[in-house]
Every structure is written in structure tokens, then in C-alpha cells.
Amino acid sequence: ETGVTQTPRHLVMGMTNKKSLKCEQHLGHNAMYWYKQSAKKPLELMFVYSLEERVENNSVPSRFSPECPNSSHLFLHLHTLQPEDSALYLCASSRRKSVLAGNEQFFGPGTRLTVL
Amino acid sequence: KQEVTQIPAALSVPEGENLVLNCSFTDSAIYNLQWFRQDPGKGLTSLLLIQSSQREQTSGRLNASLDKSSGRSTLYIAASQPGDSATYLCAVIDGANNLFFGTGTRLTVIP
């Protein structure tokens, strides 16, 4: 496997379910990101993890809980979601969380989430 | 807060035509600007990244320009092909490597 992979690719869940999205990067990067892409809205950054810092995003509801056990893996734990949380969830990674050259973000294929 | 706008939202052109996609942003204090391609239900593929010190970047039939002072970027696609059909996203990048995206332009190239 190369690049950034995400599982599952599609997920349908009820509002009372608990599920997790998984992201794995095989690029030796040290920063990972979760983005949400809703219909007709721009991609929104949800969370960032890096060696330098863990960035909390107070605008993201607590029903979304990130976990980054190591630099290669990133999870998004989902609990009591709402139908409006249905979206494409994209994971990305970069060498470092720095805007300097060589720290471009690479994206995974996404998980299409539907909340019933 | 940075806002990124892409016009038009959708565009259909016959094969072989040259075309221009537009991106504008409200805060000119950006570090880089990046153009992506997204196929239906898929992730993002980076096309071109323009650093703030540059005015344009070229890759094959693609040319992207950046005018920071006016808050604008364009993506020029030469001799369009049906395989170019996709959604094109523009993202501006701030000093913390945070990306701010537009809503995209959905391009259809008709054979």
C-alpha cells in the first residue's frame, strides 16, 4: 500500500450507533488531518495532529472524537451522529505541519458517511 | 476569516477547447495556493502548487497563475479532453499550513 488509505470507503449508520473511521499513511509523514466535505460546501478542516502540536477545533461537535496513536494512523470516532453529519470525510497527511516547501498535504480517497 | 470563491460553479465545453477556471480569496496574506482535482466520490489529487513568491506554475496542459495583491488565481487548461472532466478545487494556504477551500468548479468536457 502506498500513499494515504482510508477505511471503510462507505459507511451507513444510525444515530445511536458508534463507529470509527480509520486513516493510514505510508509516506513517513508526521502530520495528519481530518476534513469534512458536505454537499455544496467547501472542505472544512476538523482536526490536525502533528509532532509539533495537536490542534483542537472547538467548532467541531464533541460527537466527533479524533485519536492519533502514532504518526501513521489516525482515527475519527463517531457517536450519536445527526443526519446533517452525512458527508465525505477526507484524511490527509504532510511531512510536517509547516508551510515550508516539501510539506504539501496528500489526501486519501475518503469515507462516504450516511447517517440515517 | 479567509473566504475562497470559485466561478463558475459548473462549466461544459466541447473537447479541444481551451478554458479558464477562476478562484478569488478575501485575505491576501497567504503563503501558497494549490489547485486540486476531485473525481466523483474520490479524494483530492494535487495538480499545481504556487508558492507566494511565484506568479505561475505549469504542468503539461495546465497553467496556474497567482496574483496575491488582487486575491485571484486562474487555472488554464489547454486543449481540453473528456478525461479532464472532474471538479476542480482551489485552496489557499496560510502560515500554519491550513488549507481554505473553495466550493469548486465542476467541469464537463463533451466528446
Tell me briefly what this model is.
The complex is a heterodimer of chains A (116) and B (111). Chain A is mostly beta strands and 116 residues long.
Percent strand of chain A: over 45%
Helix content of chain B: under 10%
Any idea what the radius of gyration of chain A is?
A: 14 Å
Which overall shape of chain B is indicated by the principal axes computed on the Cα atoms? Answer: globular
If you had to describe this structure to a student in words, what would you say it looks like?
The complex is a heterodimer of chains A (116) and B (111). Chain A is mainly β. Chain A contains no helices and eleven strands. Chain A has strands at 4-7, 10-13, 18-25, 31-37, 44-50, 54-55, 64-70, 73-79, 87-94, 106-107, 111-115. The N and C termini of chain A lie far apart (32 Å). In chain B, strands 2, 4, 5, 9, 10 and 11 form a six-stranded mixed β-sheet that branches. In chain B, strands 1-3-8-7-6 form a five-stranded antiparallel β-sheet, with no helix packed on it. By secondary structure, chain B is mainly beta. Chain B contains no helices and eleven strands. The mean pLDDT of chain B is 94. Chain B is 0% helix and 58% strand. Chain B is globular and about 40 Å long. The termini of chain B are far apart. The chains are: A mainly beta (116), B mainly beta (111). Chains A and B meet through strand 9 and strand 10 of A and strand 4, strand 5, strand 9 and strand 10 of B.
Entry keywords:
heterodimer; A: 116 residues; mainly beta; 7-stranded mixed β-sheet; 4-stranded antiparallel β-sheet; 11 strands; B: 111 residues; 5-stranded antiparallel β-sheet; 58% strand
